Amino acid sequence: MDTRTELLKCAENVARRRGYDGFSYADLAKEVGIRKASIHYHFPAKADLAVAMIERYASSFSDALAVIDETSDIASDRLEAYVQSYRKALSGGAKLCLCVAFSVSRDSLSKEALQELDDFHSMSHEWLMNTFQLAKKDNSVSNVGDPKDEAAALLAMVEGAQLVARAACKVADYDRATRLFLKRLA
Amino acid sequence: MDTRTELLKCAENVARRRGYDGFSYADLAKEVGIRKASIHYHFPAKADLAVAMIERYASSFSDALAVIDETSDIASDRLEAYVQSYRKALSGGAKLCLCVAFSVSRDSLSKEALQELDDFHSMSHEWLMNTFQLAKKDNSVSNVGDPKDEAAALLAMVEGAQLVARAACKVADYDRATRLFLKRLA
DNA sequence: GTCTATAGTTTGATAGAC
DNA sequence: GTCTATCAAACTATAGAC
């Protein structure tokens, strides 16, 4: 793997544990095994790194959603996989979704990074909306309301469930918070 | 107001905007109007400040829940007030619940602070559980599941809704995420 | 209780050799 | 591309005068 990618991977890893203001170039240098001055060759400023991190995260997230869509045509299957993916991202209570971690540090981010953050949420929201729209047709989810509202509610729920589970370092808290929603799935 | 309280108020304010790793003694000194060295008289280390912040936050939150209980005996009224209180805490998309902000910076907190964080979540969860238990009796909420699961789901939802709204600085996002739940209230 | 002064560390970032 | 060397600024924290 090239150094740039290795840096991005490492940065994502630590940012999802500690937030944007909670990691430094020194942390990355130590982990990747180069000097911190060398990092500036790949990312001149931390703001550049932040943008690249969100871009990479959104891209891989988008890929994951595409895989979910390919795996099943049933809305309930897709939503279950979605909830499961946020559970997996928790890493046993040690990590958060990158965008959850970055949302808290909003004031430290550049305009460009905030735009990327916004794009990520838009993409997630749209995928969820379409999936709830499908659920209305295939009847695989009980009691479906306005897809726009359902999408916003589920996005908030998985992000909040991650947060609560992270606070206590207990995946069980994530499971408890999402249980009633999963019961609505066929 | 005494300086200690003023410092706590100010620290809460900035921590809810920027997270635990996002503010410094210099920020507080500037805002409160004393030198940063003076802050150490009240809070020897930042870890001490963190503990006092959560204590104060949990205490005022607990008071707010007591007021809600006094205002109405109907479960749906109480839950609506609960959701509303998280909305108000958003401050137009500028702030988060202190415990949401601190959960992200978990690794920077002392054991004592983490314990306080845990206590806060326990208190919230218990109040919600009792309220959903009441809802089962007074039928003011539609389709109530296991109170324990309902409590966890709602806590996750309001915290997640705050986060999404904070990311975009749009209170409307909070409203959209909580709309379907509020529809279940009588 | 608040101040000045300062220590010791860490931060993000740059210059220039290799 | 990575290094050494260095910078100025910010950080938490302490000592001691008032």
What tags apply to this protein structure?
homodimer, 186 residues, mainly alpha, Tetracycline Repressor, domain 2, 9 helices, 76% helix, 0% strand, elongated, DNA-binding
Gyration radius of chain A (Cα, Å) is 18 Å
In which range does the helix fraction of chain A lie?
over 70%
Based on Cα principal axes, name the global outline of chain A.
elongated
Tell me the distance between the termini of chain A: 42 Å
Q: Which class of secondary structure composition applies to the elements of chain A?
A: mainly alpha
Q: How much β-strand is present in the residues of chain A? A: under 5%
**CATH architecture classification of the domain at 55-183 in chain A:** Orthogonal Bundle
Tell me about the biggest sheet of chain A? none
Q: Number of helix segments of chain A?
A: 9
Interface with most residues: A-B, 48 and 48 residues
Q: Please, what is the CATH homologous superfamily of the domain at 55-183 in chain A?
A: Tetracycline Repressor, domain 2
The mean pLDDT of chain A is 98
Quantity of strands of chain A, as a count: 0
Instruction: Give the ordered list of helices and strands of chain A.
Output: HHHHHHHHH
Stated plainly, the CATH topology of the domain at 55-183 in chain A is called Tetracycline Repressor, domain 2
